[in-house]
Amino acid sequence: MDYQFDFSFLTTHWQDIIDGVWLTLRMSVATIIFGFLLGTILAVVRTQGSVWGKRAVTWYVDVIRNTPLVIQTFWLFFGLAAMQVRIPAMAAAVIALVINVSAYTAEIVRAGIEAVPKGQVEAASCLALTRWQVLRLVVLPQAVERMYPALVSQFVLMMLATSIMSQISAEELTAIGYRIQSETFRGFEIYILIAVIYLVLSMLLRLSMTGIGSVAFARRRRLQTPL
Amino acid sequence: MFLGISVDHLIFILRGAGWTLVLSGMGFIGGTLVGLPLALARARGGWMVRSGAGAYIQLMQGIPLPVLMFVIYFGISIAGFDVPALVAAALAMTAYSSAYLGEIWKGCIQAVPRTQWEAAECLALKPLQRAVYVILPQAARVAIAPTVSFLVQIVKNSSYAVVIGFFDLTYSARVVNNSTFKPFVVFTIAAMLYFAICYPLSALSYKIEKRMSRTIES
Q1: Is the Cβ pair B170, A163 closer than 8 Å?
Q2: Nearest-CA residue of chain B relative to A191?
Q3: Distance of residue A108 Cα from the nearest chain B Cα, in angstroms
């Protein structure tokens, strides 16, 4: 094999690569925030909502978790285009990712809520807290604290999944790679580089989320063990 | 004609679904062949073997599958081979699923009590025999539920092969959408087909898990 590796595209295209990383990061952070909020709401409805609310959330979670993200994204993106609704690819990508990740988050948070001991809820209502206060001050903090490692793993997977948004022409890292590839014909080198960048990004994301967790959940840090 | 989709379109999409099943099957078989030694290496290997296998798993879990598809696809072509996208996709699926299966099965192997290894050694079984006749059959019981649940991931993530132009359910649905421009109908059909493959597997995994936890409790 006499293949000459050629990374010279770096000198001409490094700015594009930085832009791609930046868009991937923005997409990921937006999705983590909105996906976590929507997922938590869904988990609350699933555990304490009305019969129909529970049924609807169960159905939603099952449908999302048993179909691929790509199909969900195409459905949304091309569907909106067919209805003459014009939104930027970036916005469509974030909406699709939020819908997707919220179903997984809902399952994780639900497991956390169900693991909170009954005595905690009873003690809280003995203190005359309203139902909303019990949820906000007692149940959810403990549920999220307990499930935090699972949430971190889910969000790292979600960050990696943003790469498929290149298929609807969102200009994130993978899409940038494809464009450089079609201009320079150095597909192998570019994707090796992009793989390394994703690897670093996933480590950084995991590290920073673990850092946020150790600040937010002081009890966990002091115990040094999972709850 | 049905909602703007002809029977030919429907058959075209179904052919894509067939290739999705083929790719998923290849990914699972490849993932098993590589993942099982990985799991054994992670659970029982010496320091070097263990960290080597660990590094491989970390690497594969930190790279998005679409990027992995591209790396293998372009890698094969610069190595001077001209192979169909199916081969590149199957290799990428193998690399991806072996990392996750290796990690899942490592846990299952470690769940078998240590004394079982020692007892097998006392019976003068060789290392391979210990694994094959004593440990793996016991680990397999624990492994069924998470493995079936990971099958769902394999089927869903095989859709990422669309980036290298592999003809699967996602690809065929996109082609039909491009010619009919009925995205809601086309992608709903595709989603229903994926759901029809994945949901029974999810339900089965959940059922096995419940039954297993009942046996452990009693």
Answers
A1: no
A2: B71
A3: 15
- Tally of structural domains, chain A: 1
Query: For residues B205 and B146, is the Cβ–Cβ distance under 8 A?
Result: yes
At residue A217, the pLDDT reads 83
Assigned architecture for domain B7-217: Orthogonal Bundle (1.10)
Token pair belonging to A99: 């819908």
Please answer yes or no on whether A67 and B156 come within 8 Å at the CB atom: yes
Specify if A181 maps to a domain.
Answer: yes
A71 with B187: Cβ contact below 8 A: yes
Residues of B in contact with A202 (CB under 8 A): 61-62
A130-153: pLDDT as tens digits: 989 999 999 999 999 989 999 999
Q: Is residue A2 part of a domain?
A: no
Instruction: Check residue A225 and give its pLDDT.
Output: 61
- Nearest CA among B42, B34, B170, B159 for reference residue B91: B34
Q: Over the stretch B26-36, which tens digit does the pLDDT of each residue have?
A: 999 999 999 99
Domain of residue A93: give its range. Answer: 11-223
> What distance in Å separates the CA atoms of residue A30 and residue A90, rounded to the nearest whole number?
11
Which residues contact residue A218 at a Cβ distance below 8 angstroms, ignoring those fewer than 6 apart? Answer: none
Residue A3 resides in a domain: no
Residue-wise pLDDT tens digits, B90-114: 999 999 999 999 999 999 999 999 8
Please indicate whether, in this complex, the C-beta atoms of A1 and B59 are within 8 angstroms of each other.
Answer: no
* A1 CB within 8 Å of a chain B CB: yes
Pick left, alpha or beta for residue A185 (phi over 0 → left; psi -120 to 50 → alpha; otherwise beta): left
Task: Assign A225 to helix, strand or coil.
Answer: coil
- Nearest-CA distance from A71 to chain B in Å? 6
Q: What are phi and psi of A225, to 5 degrees?
A: -135, 160
What is this structure's pTM?
Answer: 0.90
- Min distance B176 CA to chain A CA atoms (Å): 12
Instruction: State yes or no: pLDDT of B52 exceeds 80.
Output: yes
d(C-alpha B180, C-alpha A115), whole Å: 49
Chain B residues with CB-CB distance to A under 8 A? 59, 61-68, 70-71, 73-75, 77-80, 152, 156-157, 159-160, 162-163, 170, 173-174, 177, 181-184, 187-188, 190-191, 194-195, 198-199, 202
Of residues A3, A71, A79, nearest to B190 (C-beta): A71
For the four alpha carbons of A199, A203, A208 and A213, in that order, the dihedral sign comes to positive
In CATH, what number is assigned to the domain containing residue A119? Answer: 1.10.3720.10
Mean pLDDT split into 10-residue runs, chain A, 227 residues: 74 88 94 96 93 95 96 94 88 95 96 92 92 91 91 95 91 89 86 94 94 83 63
ipTM score assigned to the predicted complex:
0.89
